[in-house]
Amino acid sequence: MSSGCETYLSFIQSQVRPAGKAAACELKRAVTISRQSGCGAHAIAEKLAQYLQDRSPKAAAPWTVFDRNLMERVLTDHNLPERIAKFMPEDRVSEIEDAMDELFGLRPAAWTLVQQTSETILHLASLGNVILLGRGANIVTAKQPGAVHVRLVGSVERRVAAMQEFDGLTRKAALERIRREDLGRQRYFKKYFGKDIADPLLYHLVLNTDLLSSETAARLIGDTVLGVRAE
Length: 231
Description:
CATH superfamily: P-loop containing nucleotide triphosphate hydrolases
Number of domains: 1
CATH architecture: 3-Layer(aba) Sandwich
CATH class: Alpha Beta
Distance between the termini: 40 Å
Order of helices and strands: HHEHEHHHEHEHHEH
Oligomer: single chain
Mean pLDDT: 79
Radius of gyration: 18 Å
Helix content: 40-55%
């Protein structure tokens, strides 16, 4: 079993508790993080999970980050073969490839995969104590009272420098990766949700990671999450 699937199963098991009046009234909290490529979203998400866990009751389910392991869960939830995973990154496959593969029955259509991904996102958010990266999760969970939506942005120069430092890329390779990933996420968001991913009105917080350490960003997000109250 992959580590991502193990993380998910551990999370689900921790959420299984006897139903009761208090549990029924409990606000289910979730965080969605949209990001420009190279903003350090993974590091911030992990620090955020720890920050929130440290401030949660001892009996609370662990705060868990879902990113690449989310795709593994989608495959499991919808009984899809593992080979489908390569088609699931945000806007990685062209519309022509999607149409041809659907015609010959090689995989589900992109719209179907997005719907299935959204269903899994909603399920996780309904359990609470989750941090979801990408996939339009802020739109999918827009009506959930306990969800906080965050957008991470930064200058191209700082993001290139981060990729060079942490991923060992050349400047040219880092620039190309940033261009490809940012454009892919913009297209994915626009095509499947009809929204501009950069619209600040879609988020509770828009944080400039040029000016904030990952620890500070995690604290700002965490304090916002903890400040949310049931209406």
